[in-house]
Amino acid sequence: MGLWSDLKVLYHMVFRPGRGRDHAERMESFYGPQAEAYDSFRRRLLQGREDLWAKLGVPEGGIWVDLGAGTGSNAEYFGENIQRLRKVILVDLSKSLLEVAQKRIQRHGWTNVETRLADATTFTPDEPVDVVTFSYSLTMIPDWFAAVDNAWRILKPGGRIGVVDFYVSRKHPGPGMRRHGTCARLFWTFWFNYDDVFPSPDHIPYLRYRFREIFLEERRAKVPYLPLARAPYYIFVGEKNTDLTPDLPV
What we know:
By secondary structure, the protein is an alpha/beta fold.
């Protein structure tokens, strides 16, 4: 069953990239047919998510928003601590992925977790939240900078953002940052772009500009069925500080 699920995912990655008039249609076109097989393959590809959840901690009685939550598998990283949160909101543009997330909520009996079909760049909760996360979703949002700005907007002062995602370095990265060679930058950009995933050299600099950096680590992940490949990714944790970017809209 595991191999069959992988083949189904690989078929859509190679032969059935997302199609549609807008981002929502392309998301549903790509993920709808593989929604049930989504988690098994990506659990091996999308590394660092559990580490990010551990770095962020669980704010007692807080509200946590996962933007681009997909099937809601990230919520399982809370374990029993999920009950310490007042609310967890799983936001995504794919109806099919959220249907899988809803089944997961029912299976676990989570009473404080809900799904929202919405755009990460405009989603507005009923009240300011304590934590916003992007787990391998920022690279899939065309206006990713607007999504980061929206996360800043909906966070409480002192609230935290957590991001784990693929990236490529700038040709001339800043002090202390890793530099990827030309071939690596071109290969990973092309490889991910084919499936409408856009690793950017500007994610980390913009996150560091928009939020007070608490934690940053650059890593590489093994890629299923490509034994020699190591995809670059990063983990970032930041805090909303209204003094950092007064020129940007609230």
